Amino acid sequence: MKALAKWIADGTPWVWLNAAAVSASILLVAGLLLLIGVRGMGHFWPLEVQRIVYQQADGSELVLAGQIREEEKVTASRLRESGLEVAEGTEFVTRYLLKTGNRDVIGQDFRWILEPSIISTGKPQSMVVFEREEWGVFIGLLIGVREAGQLLEDADVWGSFQNRLDHANELRDEIRDLEKSRIGRVNYRLERLRLKQRGLEIKGRDDAAALAEIESNRIVLQKEYEALEQELGDLYTRLRSDAVIVTTVDGQELELPMSSIVDAHRPNQMNLVGKLGYFFHNVWKFIAHDPREANTEGGIFPAIFGTVLMVLLMSVFVTPLGVVAAVYLKEYARQGLFTRFIRIAVNNLAGVPSIVYGVFGLGFFVYTLGGSLDRLFYPEALPAPTFGTGGLFWASLTLALLTLPVVIVSTEEGLSRIPRSIREGSLALGATRWETLWRTVLPMASPGIMTGMILAVARAAGEVAPLMLVGVVKLAPSLPLDGNAPFLHLDRKFMHLGFHIYDVGFQSPNVEAARPLVYATALLLVVVIVLLNLVAIQVRNRLSERYRGLES
Q1: Distance separating alpha carbons of residues 491 and 480, to the nearest angstrom
Q2: In this structure, is residue 537 part of a structural domain?
C-alpha cells in the first residue's frame, strides 16, 4: 500500500494518463486523415470498366457498363420491404454502386445493383471513359472520328481521336485565354469608361471635350472587342467541327461533339504504371482547373486561390491590430480593474460563435461602411454596389476580427516572457521607452506573435459560416487578383475551400458524384492549412533561435 501511495503521490499515473490521452488524440487525427485521404484520393484512380449482364425484377436482362464505386452488405429484409425479391434463407445481400455515366442517355449516372442478380461480368479492352464538359462521363465504345464533318478512314481510331482531342484542348485553351484575359480586359476598360462618364455627369463636368475623349476611347475599344469577337467565333467554329461516333454497351450509336470532350482514357488497357500516371494527371487537373457541372466535376483552383489570398489579407489586417492592442495592455495600460475587465472581454470574444462575427461583418462592414464608401467614392456605380456588398475585403476584415483575441493573448504571453532586466538594462543605457519596445522587446517577443499568427491562420482558413454572409460564393466569375489595374480587387466575391465542401456536400444535385469530391476537397484544405502553418512555424523557429541567447 505504501508503494502504491508513493507511486500515486509522485504523479506517475497522471503522466501515463496524459500520455494515453495524447496517443488517443494522435490516433484519432491520423484515422480521420487516413479516411479522408483514402476516400478522396480514390476518386482520381482510374477504375476498370465492367460489362455486366443484369437480371431485372421483371426477369428481363439488362446490359450495363460502369465502374464499381462502392460495395456494401444490406439485410434481405430491407430489400424485401422495398419490393425486391430475395431468395428465402438469405440474411445479407451484397450490392454495388455502379457508375454507369451516360446521364444524357439513361437519365442517371449511378445505380445500385444486387450481386445475386448479376448474370455475368467482363472487362472489354475497348471500353472508353469520356470526360465531358456537361452531363458527366460517357462510357462506351469508340467506333469513328469525324474531322470537319468527314468520317476519317483510319485503322487506328484511338490514335486519330487522341490527335483531334489534343487539337480540341489547344483550341479550348485559346478560347479560355481569349475570353478571360483579352476580352475580359476590353470589357473591364469599357466599364471603366462608362463609370467615368457617369461620374462626370454627376459632378456636372460632362463638357463636350471630356465626352469626346471618352467616346474616342470607346470607339477604339469597341473595334478591338469586335475583332476579338470575330477571332473567338472562328475558334468556336473550328472547335465544333469535329465529333466522335460512339456506341453504348447495349448498341445505341451516338455522336459526341469534340467540343464537349475534355479527356478520355481506356482503363481496362492500363497497367499499373499507366494508372499511376493517369492518377497524378487527375490530381493535377483537380488542383489547377476550374470547376464544372455545379462543382461536381472539374477542379477547384479558384477556391484554393481565394482561400490562400483571404488568409494572407487577414494576416495583414490582424497582426498590427493584435500586436498594438497587446502592447498597450501589457506595456502602457495601468494594471487595474479596467484592464482586467478588458482581458476578460478579449478572452470571452474568443468563444463567441463565428456566425455572430459574420452577422456583425454583414451589418457593420458591408452595409454601414461599404454603403458609406459607395456613396462617397463610387456614386457613379450606384445603385449597383461596389463595397456595399460582400467581398474579399470585408471577408478578410471579419476573419481578422474573429481571430484578433487569439493574437492578442499570444502576444501578451510573448511579452510576459521577456525578463524585466532586459527592459531595465535598455533604459539604463539611455534608450527611450519606445526604443526599448521597438528594438528589444518586440523582436524578442516575435516567437509569441508568430504563435498567435499560426493559431489565427489555422482557424481562419477553415471558417465557413461568417464567409457565407460577407463575400464567399458558389462560383466566382473572375479571380480577385488579375492583370487589370488596380490588380487586387478587394470588392470582388471569391471562392473558398470550406464553402466549396459545404456546397458540394449539401447543395449538389448529384449526391453520388459529389461525395468523393467532398473528401478530396477536405484533404486539400487540410494540406493548405498545414502548408500555411509550416511557413509560420519556420519563421517562428528562426526568430526563437535568433533571440534565445538574449532571453537567457
Answers
A1: 8
A2: no
